Amino acid sequence: MDYVVEMLNIRKEFAGIVANDDITLRLKRGEIHALLGENGAGKSTLMGILFGMYQADRGIIKVNGEETRISNPNVAYKLGIGMVHQHFKLVEKFTVTENMILGSEPRKGLILDIKAAAKRIEKLSQLYGLNVDPYARIEDISVGMQQRVEILKMLYRDAEVLIFDEPTAVLTPQEIQDFEKILKNLIAEGKSVILITHKLKEIKAVAHRCTIIRRGKTIGMVDVGEATEAQMAEMMVGRQISFKVDKQTSTPGEVVLRLDSLTISNNKKLTALNNFSLDVRAGEVVGIAGVEGNGQAELVEGITGLRKIESGHVWFQGKDITGMAIRDRIEQGIAHIPEDRHKRGLVLDYTLEENMILEVYHREPFSKRGLLNKPAIREYANRILESFDVRSGQGAVSVARSLSGGNQQKAIIGRELELAPDLLIAVQPTRGLDVGSIEYIHKRLIEHRDQGKAVLLVSLELEEVIQVSDRIAVVNNGELIGVVESKDTNEQEVGLMMAGVKRGGGV
Ligand SMILES: Nc1ncnc2c1ncn2[C@@H]1O[C@H](COP(=O)(O)OP(=O)(O)OP(=O)(O)O)[C@@H](O)[C@H]1O
């Protein structure tokens, strides 16, 4: 059999946790091989070992049939192995070409030969249908484009085996379609791909085979053509998963949040949200649907106090909070699951327990006369971590950075729900979560609603918005296109509204 990579019986232990325990994965030349497993199952660790970021404690790695030791990522590249991480590793102020040549700058004599590099990038970009401008600055291009730069970086270094760690978690639906095409182009040119993803549909759409791991152990390998999504999900979590959200019809009460003619600018001082009005009531989930970048981020920042409102008012429980400080909004009962878990969700170098009290440390019993009450904090943190099944090496004292992405996300959601807020603003709450955790988080959001609280859900996953929300407000270009009841609509209709077509056909 022509295997380009074989990872045999791999074991890797971190302090207090066995991340990989006897995992075997074999990659055929020219295939897309999915790696599926729960949050914290050990996928990123396994790929980190293949890319030379970690050393396995036990096990063998063969590349092109030969046993090798991959002591660092440079060695991995020499063996033809490249990786795109969950969080990109690009220098924002640099251009595409400058990022590409970083560390191995081409020179003509003593002078940097940027032009030659740019030419090669352009050629590769064309060959694989990437459409990247070699002179664009990273901070000026979209996330989807940045990912293509990461792909180019691998190709520029002649990688034959390309590893992707949850590549579509940060992409918009349109970008995902483009990405799937790019994957097929890569395979057509003879590359081999390992794809970590939680999205079963995506596995069905692009992958040939799939290795499934659970709690650090290989559960099995399937031919994707012969397995259903439900079968793969069950192998992964060890129980059946319901892909439907169970909920009763909502019984909305008083208006909790009233947005009255909000106009908000973006970072470039252009109008991002224009004259936007919407009510969210107690006991209902209102979803915001829209293509990314149509004012959703500014809307959330306006409500939470992270961005100035140019005109209009935000009313919360009948009080005008338009100019209120962020801390006071939290005290009033507004909680926020932010879109970017690293920038706004967690302090990565704090422990989990410190992260769990970021909004409440000044309250009793967590502190008294300026002194922290450690046992009370630990107890509080443990309760959240247990109820949300946050898995980490050392429990509450683990540093947030050491957790897997999905477990970081679960910790944030737990922290915000524990505040029992009258208004929960959840932005992409299930990004990067496995299907079992998604099922659980959706259940908790509905429970929160059923306790008479208001939920504002912002998500790019249309299916999620329609399944979880009671009403859906569709935005396009910063304007409210319409509000529909989710039980009377479907993806096609909401999709059209997202493109600016009003209900009934008008634009
Ligand atoms: N550098 C590290 N130090 C300590 N523990 C770590 C480290 N990296 C990973 N872990 C732990 O190893 C386990 C496996 O993590 P890993 O990131 O490989 O999971 P994953 O399957 O990629 O999860 P996700 O789907 O949530 O991204 C987790 O419990 C994590 O907390």
UniProtKB/TrEMBL annotation:
Q: Which residues form the signal peptide?
A: none
Which parts of the sequence belong to the ABC transporter domain? Answer: 5-240, 257-502
Q: Which GO terms describe its molecular function?
A: ATP binding
Alphabetically ordered keywords of this record: ATP-binding, Nucleotide-binding
SMART domains listed in its UniProt record:
AAA (SM00382)
Cite the CDD domains for this sequence: ABC_Carb_Monos_I, ABC_Carb_Monos_II
Superkingdom per UniProt: Bacteria
Name of the protein: ABC transporter ATP-binding protein
